[in-house]
Input
Amino acid sequence: MPVEDGGRALLFKNSSRADDSRRNRQDMVSKLRKDKRTEQMLKRRQVVEDSENEVTEKDANSAQQMDPAQIKQIIDTSSDINVIMGAVQNCRKVLSREQSPLIDEVIDSGLLPVLVNFLMCNDNPSLQFEACWALTNIASGTNKHTKAVVECGAVPHFIKLLSSQHVNVCEQAVWALGNVAGDGATYRDFVVNCGIIQPLIKLVNPEVSTSFLRNLSWTMSNLCRNKDPPPTMETIESLLPTICNLLQYSDKNVLSDACWALSYVTDGSNDRIQRVIASGIISKLVELLGHNEVVVVTPALRAVGNIVTGNDEQTQAIISQGALTHFDKLLFHKKNNIQKEAAWTMSNITAGTTHQIQSVIDAGLLPYIIDVLGRGDFKTQKEAVWAVTNLTSGGTPEQTMQLVELHALSPLSNMLTVQDTRTVTVALDGIYNILTAANKISEEVCSKVALVLEETGGLDHIEKLQEHENERVYAKSAQIIEEFYKGEEGEDGELQPDVANGQFLFNAPQNNSGKISF
Output
């Protein structure tokens, strides 16, 4: 797969098309990491909260003063279970600081094997809980910290604790396993191979608390993430029914992580996308595009966007569920990232069939796409350029001319002045396609569209691009000038397009709507 400028890989989504108009992203993994850390951390450390754990300020200060080596010595030399419990609690507290938890110090003290042994104390669930909490916080650190927990043999014991009759112990084990799985593909697969899936999915039931559900959904999302390699199809098929079930809950955090899980699953091959479609959950996923919480909309939109990178039938499945009715609001969302994702999704739909392009037009979305092309932040504008150019590439001449009627040439021409060569190339392709489509209607319409382009300043930009250092930019600019502006000196005012109701009219036969009738 070729990697284009900016680290983006382009996929041939539609096998019937020779261009690279439907696109997935090479940078998706790093982008998801960044988004996920912002919305809900991939790894989470459980900090001490006075209201829940009855820890006073004096307790916290004393925990801060206790050295992990001292804690280890107390555990090694005492036979009093209460003293041992107090020492383990102190260990947990130094790992639960808001700032600078003593993870390295605890590891260096040799406490990890001791904590792992305490996981096996089935006759003392309080000790199991404290030890599990401490190990959870260690696994929330760097890869080195997670590796230390795994190499001490904690994972099989965490999985056994998923069947504990003590809910707090069970929930803490879920949290610990989520941290390990969130470290990367290697430990994700290790946790799966240790047998996490079946006991984990059994824990999802109507009686479980909301806080427990949040941990369950978060851990499942971590079992679905990372692409190098992606989770096995067996893993996905085992988790998918439960993830779909989680979408029926109302808690925003549960919904968010369930949607993230689906976004990870759909960020891959078409057979993985098809598994999600076959699950029957896409109607709910589409519904969540209208949710009032950004933490839900963001992953739901990512999942929908990933699905429409699939084949035409998979894209149509999303359209048929009414997804397009949400995109006017998504394209004008207050969050720039959601605008960008919405424009990216639109670009993959306009890379589809003429029927799918017409669905976008019928939904009234072209004005919104053109608006963000002109006024969005640069990342959104880049996606909008693709949305417009893909339409010009696969749409009919009549569909393409609707862009001209809605004044798309001006913002499209402005994108010729940006520094990003790839974006300039895509914009040039779009302009060339528009002129070609106009020429298929008639030479007169083509001349008038060319005049509109000139009056919006686009021709000046194209002429300057003939001196561009990039060969493809230079060649496409020269091609446009050569094919469409050869004899422009002899043109006169008769070719001036009329404007009515804010739309260009080219004196072609018109219908009663005032738009061009071809």
